[in-house]
Amino acid sequence: MAILPMKHIEIIAMQKDAKKIVELLQRLGTVDVTERYADDVTEDLNLFPSKSSLTQLEKTSASIRHAIALVEEYSTVKKPFLSGFAGRQELTLEEFSERADRNDETMKIVYDIEALDRKIASETTVRTSTRHQLDAILPWEKLDIPMQYQGSQKTTCIVGQFPEAYDESTFYTAFCDQYRAQKESEAVLSGLTSSADELKIPDIYTDIVYTAADQTCACFIVHKKDYEDVMATLRRMSFTAPSDPTKHPPEVRIARLRKRIEEASDTIEASREKLRSYSDKLDDLYFLSDYMIMRQDKYDMLGKILFSKKTFILDGFVAAEDCASVERALTEKFELVFESRDPLPDEEIPAKFKNGPFVSPVEDIVESYSAPTRGDIDPNPVMAFFYYFFFGMMLSDAGYGILLMLGTLFVLKKRKPEGNNKKNMMKFFYCGMATTFWGFMYGSFFGDVVGSVSKGFFSGKVSLPPIWFDPSKDPMKLLILSFCLGFLHILLGLGAKFYRMCRNGEVAGAFAEVFFWFVTFAGIVMVIFPMILGEFTPWTVADGVPLAEIGKWTAIAGAVGIFLGGGYGKKGIVGKFIGGFGAIYGVTGYFSDLLSYSRLMALGLVTGIVGSVANSIGTLFFSGIGKLLVFIPVFFFFHAINLGISALGAYVHVNRLQYVEFLSKFYDGGGTMFTPFTGNTKHFKIKEDN
After folding, report:
1. Could you read off the pLDDT of 417-450 as tens digits, one per residue?
2. Which residues pair with 155 in a beta bridge?
3. What domains appear along the chain, each with residue ranges and CATH number?
């Protein structure tokens, strides 16, 4: 197939029909609308002020997405396996309108979900804070008096804690030592002398409430007359009073805190249960989300269109094959002016590919590289076969290929993906086919699992022989095959360049830049093939002239043509000479490109060897049932890793071969892809009535 020809269209219609026309174009999804900017504004034409509407729609969409995420998080209904690949549900316009009428009710559910989320967040904060308070007061649980208790008429109560562990005995000893030290310090400061024997320790009642490695909670009762001395000594022992003492015995506050935690937990669980109950409303929430996406896209598009007082102007590009159907759909429903024309010579045209089921899966590879310009040809038909072929050579294991095919077929059958998801599944299905083919050609099926199982479990000699050859035993043959296929791939790229230049009217340039390379390569092939295939092969032509001799002169003639062609279009003798020399020097680039295809050998060889090593490890230990119990997990583990790494490597390197060695030969790129204005929804799509 090819790059589709485009038509430029212009629509002039009444302003009152603007939203409906935009909605129709959105459903058709066939028009790439040209965006207008502030520079296009004139005295009579202005851009639609859609910024405030878009801001509000984005906030609403964010709320809906958040509500969906919450319901999915708490829902007990699990999504189907690989649901991310599922296609969108198709609705008629009438069904879409009916569901849109329920959006107000669904929006109330969104508000309720947000309220529940805020309640959960609030109660979670309260519960966390309350737990911290509970953790702080739990050590005082055994204290049977309020922490704020001051004492009686003649006594004082002191409640507090120390940063180290004490019991009543060790505390009293430490207290006495600190008390004596305190008094001695006071005596020194006052210039008096005192005897330790004469010093009287104050009477102090001690109740150790709680002891841990780095904490002691205690309550003390002392005479009022001894309060200052006792407090001074306690401070020397790093005593601190509680920051939030209770008015009641601590067990009262502890009970209240536990009740508050329980109430918060009940509220949180009730809110979560309410969220779970909205699981049956997920379909309506999905629809509302898609509806808002479509409205956002619509208002975004309205902001890119020029409006006058009563009319608006919309222009863009549409594929030539769709132009008539777009015109018919618009003119049947609205009074408007619809004009179409071929693109102007200097007009940038968006590119749209149209290929069959075998080629279209690789279109995203080209799009990732660069969109084609007007002068480019569609590289996908040229690239597709070699893309699958080379991927298969690199992965090259029939077992892995079968797994790829079965996995992609399962997704295609069960999930029915669409768009790029479907193309990717088809791409890897064809890659799996090529991998299976090369696996049997090389005799690789999960490495050498047939031979390993036969030898390790049954002492037999059954194996899966290669249809062609075993790369591990004859790597040179695989290297030569890789170079031959790479050479053919490069020639195909040059052929595509020759065709493109001739199609664009550059016939002289095509012969100057491309044709003589074919002559040179043909001569080189005639020289090399007899050397590879041996001297006993009668490589002669008429009159017994050796083919290699003809090839030598053919290559020389081609080189002369390249030199002369390199100077084509250059000014002056010096310019032509430099251009010719540069063209001849380009042969080093082709040799470098050819060497890049050695990766076909390297990756294909590694995949089979790693798989065989994994099988050998699995059959190395024990015997009988013990060997089987070791072999099964080793087999699955190593082959899963090998498949993942090898498939990733094949994907990366096959892309590189296309980008660097193939597309660079004939493909300029630098254009823009056709991006139709459509509904970028995730779950639903509208089927336009015919």
Report:
1. 988 899 999 999 999 999 999 999 999 999 999 9
2. 223
3. 148-241 (3.30.70.2750), 354-666 (no CATH)
